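May I ask you to review the protein record following this short note?
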Amino acid sequence: MNYVFKNILFFSFLVTFGLQSGLSMATPTSSIPFIKSHGLIIINASINGQNGAFIFDSGCNSLIVHAQNFNSEVAATFETVNGSIDMQEIEIADFRVGGFEAKNVEAYAQDLSLLSARTGVDLSGIVGVHLFENQIVHIDNESHVIELYKDLNQVNNLSAYSVESTFTIKEGLVFVPIVIDHQVYQFLLDTGSSASFINKELISNQTITSMHPLKKEVESFSLSNESSVSTVYLFQKVGLSNIQITDLEMGAIDLSLVNQELGFKVDGILSIEQIPVSNMLIDIASKKLYLRL
């Protein structure tokens, strides 16, 4: 008998075009402590002087804030993996996290009450990694801290990062090449998902053979406040650069509408929770990913 394995998927996949903001670094290096909730990275940040809990989400290319604090008549429609959603376009005069500061940031407002209830965290918003496009983003899973560097040479013990991979950026989202059955696929690198997913088209077309379905399902949630249940498949080996992720579980979801909106073929979503590394460096400017085992 199949059973539902509930996992919190906060893959918002918001596609926006021409997003601009005035960014400035208050200090050369910023340190941002985080906690984990259902596999999600939760940081403390402030908008216009008000502190709150935010999800740090590389699967989102916008700054999103809890809707109840704002009033705007400008609406925008976005596509998520669970359907479309309307949000209010706003501007944040002052955004701060750690030593990082951004002024006059374009953002979107949405009621996050349901997601707060599902994650067990009183959320003030979601921070997309695009805000740090001019920084080296260091995620330390051992010390539970995110650090921002201006230059890769500032990173301590850089030689310990034995895995290096290039990646592609589409509309502020990071896609890494994943190898399955000797074929290369493009997966979104997602800090805002506690589970990994694969486009079910690859399953139905029998493109991949080194996997089999499990007798369980994953229930995913996104900003649309809708949920979907997917069959979970076990993949024997998944390659990321020179490391092999063995026995990786991924849910099968339909990414066709997202691919159409993005204009880029997305084959899946790789949760950093399922990458066996202690530290990760994301160099957005150079499109390089560094992993420390």
Summary: Residues 1-28 have pLDDT under 50 and may be disordered.
